[in-house]
C-alpha cells in the first residue's frame, strides 16, 4: 500500500532560539497525519563543536550541553501536538495515530562522534544517547534507509572521494541509480528520470529554519529555500510532491 511521507529538512536548532515554525509543523502533522515522518538530519546544530569556528571569536562561550539541550527542547516543541493527540486518543480509547518516525543523522550531529574520536578520553561519556530520539528509528550518518523503494540519507557520498554527490537531480540519479531523498543543501530540487522499467525520483530539500546562517552571507540567505515537502502516494520508488514553504507553514496555509 502506498504511503504519504513527510520530509523535514535540516532544522539546525541552536541555543537561545525559539521555534514557532516547529510548533506549527507539529500542528501540520496532526492535521495531515502522514504515514511516515522522516527528519533528514542536522536537527542539533552543535555550533560548540564546529571545526570551522574552533580557535576563533565565534567559538567563545559555546557549550556542548547547551547545544544538546536546545535540540532536545526543539524536538519537544515539534512533537508536542502529536503527543497531546495520542494521549487524548488513549484516554478516549480511540485508535492511536502512530506514524513511523525516521531520523537520519546529519553531519552536524556527527560532530559529536568526530569530537570524541579526536578526544578519546570522552568515549563512553559523550555520544548520541544524549539526543532526544526516543520513538524515532535512528540511522547513522550516511546510512541510507529505504522506505517505499526510496533511499533516504542526509546526503549521498561519492564512493571515491567521500564528498557529497552534487549537481543536477539528473546527475545525482545517474550516480545513485535509485530514487532518493536528501537534505544538507539549502535548496529545493525535484525531478524524475524515466528508465526502461521504472521511474526514478529525486529530491534535495535542505532547510527548515527561520534564522540566517552567517557563513552564507546576505545573498546566500536571501536565495535560500526553506520548507518541507510531502511525498504523496509513495510506492516502488515513485511519488508525487507537495511543497510547503516555511511561510505557508507559519501562516497555516495547507
Describe what this molecule looks like in 3D.
This is Calcineurin-like phosphoesterase domain-containing protein. It comes from Kistimonas scapharcae. Residues 4-162 form the Calcineurin-like phosphoesterase domain. Pfam families: Metallophos (PF00149). It is globular, with a radius of gyration of 18 Å. With 254 residues, the chain is an alpha/beta fold. The strands form 2 sheets. A 6-stranded mixed sheet has the order 4-3-2-1-10-11. The protein has a 5-stranded mixed sheet with strand order 5-6-7-9-8, covered by helices on one side. 27% of the residues lie in helices and 23% in strands. The chain has a single domain (3-250), classed as Purple Acid Phosphatase, chain A, domain 2.
How is the quaternary structure best described? Answer: single chain
Mean pLDDT across all amino acids: 93
Please name the CATH architecture: 4-Layer Sandwich
Note the beta-strand portion.
15-25%
How would you classify the helix and strand content by structural class?
alpha/beta
- N→C terminal distance: 24 Å
Quickly describe the structure:
With 254 residues, the protein is α/β, with parallel strands linked by helices. The protein has helices spanning 20-32, 64-91, 111-118, 169-176, 217-222, 246-250, and strands spanning 3-8, 36-39, 100-104, 137-139, 145-147, 150-152, 180-182, 188-194, 199-205, 227-235, 238-245. The protein has one domain (3-250): Purple Acid Phosphatase, chain A, domain 2.
Amino acid at each position: 500500500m502506498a504511503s504519504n511521507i513527510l520530509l523535514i529538512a535540516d532544522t539546525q536548532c541552536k541555543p537561545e532560539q525559539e521555534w514557532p515554525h516547529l510548533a506549527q509543523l507539529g500542528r501540520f502533522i496532526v492535521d495531515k497525519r502522514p504515514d511516515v515522518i522522516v527528519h533528514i538530519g542536522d536537527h542539533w546544530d552543535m555550533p560548540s563543536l564546529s571545526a570551522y569556528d574552533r580557535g576563533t571569536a565565534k567559538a567563545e562561550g559555546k557549550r556542548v550541553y547547551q547545544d544538546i539541550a536546545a535540540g532536545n527542547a526543539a524536538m519537544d516543541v515539534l512533537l508536542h501536538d502529536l503527543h497531546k493527540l495520542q494521549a487524548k486518543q488513549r484516554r478516549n480509547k480511540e485508535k492511536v495515530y502512530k506514524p513511523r518516525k525516521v531520523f537520519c543523522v546529519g553531519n552536524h550531529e556527527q560532530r559529536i562522534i568526530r569530537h570524541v574520536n579526536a578526544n578519546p578520553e570522552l568515549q563512553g561519556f559523550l555520544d548520541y544517547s544524549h539526543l532526544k530520539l526516543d520513538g524515532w528509528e535512528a540511522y547513522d550518518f550516511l546510512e541510507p534507509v529505504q522506505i517505499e523503494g526510496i533511499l533516504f540519507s542526509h546526503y549521498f557520498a561519492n564512493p571515491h572521494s567521500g564528498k557529497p554527490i552534487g549537481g543536477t537531480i539528473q546527475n545525482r540519479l545517474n550516480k545513485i541509480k535509485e530514487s532518493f531523498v536528501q537534505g544538507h543543501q539549502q535548496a529545493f530540487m525535484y525531478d524524475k528520470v524515466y528508465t526502461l522499467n521504472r521511474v526514478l525520483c529525486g529530491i534535495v530539500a535542505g532547510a527548515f529554519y527561520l534564522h540566517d546562517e552567517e557563513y552564507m552571507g546576505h545573498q546566500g540567505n536571501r536565495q535560500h529555500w526553506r520548507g518541507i515537502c510531502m511525498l504523496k502516494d509513495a510506492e516502488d520508488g515513485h511519488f508525487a510532491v507537495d511543497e510547503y514553504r516555511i511561510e505557508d507553514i507559519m501562516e497555516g496555509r495547507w
